């Protein structure tokens, strides 16, 4: 007959307890390092920092008191607003993946109504997924195509060329 140890044999055995404690203490540094690496890989950030989410960025963004955008009286308003938002993103070091959502968070009135309709047209029931994957460059182009139409761009270009020609004529 084989005499196998039972749980009670180990529970009150000081030598066993010491061996377990020594093994655990020897493994702790390795376990800590593996957990740290796992957190860094899962979060996409080094040093074991928790991953940044849209909520983290929204808090940072709002602390900068960004201007809202609702309607415009001239296409310059769109350019000025976009420049203001871009400046905030540069200062914050904001990741591209969050920029479109943060910018549209500041839409109100007509701009908000347009944005809701636009993102639904693009994403349907998955509109939020569409926005979550929308790059800043794409958003910037979409925004300016609506609020700074081609006809306005051409008008400004004609004005610029007229001024440039007048400057050349007066300088010769």
Automatic annotation (TrEMBL):
It comes from the Eukaryota. Keywords: Nucleotidyltransferase, RNA-directed DNA polymerase, Transferase. GO terms for molecular function: RNA-directed DNA polymerase activity. This is Reverse transcriptase domain-containing protein. It comes from Artemisia annua.
């Amino acid at each position: 007959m084989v005499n196998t140890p039972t749980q009670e044999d180990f529970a009150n055995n000081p030598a066993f307890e010491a061996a377990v404690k020594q093994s655990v203490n020897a493994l702790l540094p390795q376990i800590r390092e593996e957990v740290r690496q796992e957190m860094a890989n899962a979060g996409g950030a080094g040093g074991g920092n928790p991953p940044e989410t849209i909520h983290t960025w929204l808090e940072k963004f709002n602390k900068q008191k960004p201007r809202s955008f609702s309607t415009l009286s001239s296409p310059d308003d769109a350019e000025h607003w976009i420049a203001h938002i871009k400046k905030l993103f540069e200062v914050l070091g904001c990741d591209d993946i969050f920029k479109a959502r943060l910018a549209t968070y500041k839409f109100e009135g007509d701009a908000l109504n347009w944005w809701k309709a636009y993102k639904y047209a693009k994403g349907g029931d998955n509109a939020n997924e569409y926005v979550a994957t929308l790059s800043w460059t794409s958003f910037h182009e979409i925004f300016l195509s609506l609020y700074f139409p081609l006809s306005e761009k051409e008008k400004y270009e004609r004005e610029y060329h007229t001024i440039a020609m007048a400057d050349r004529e007066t300088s010769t």
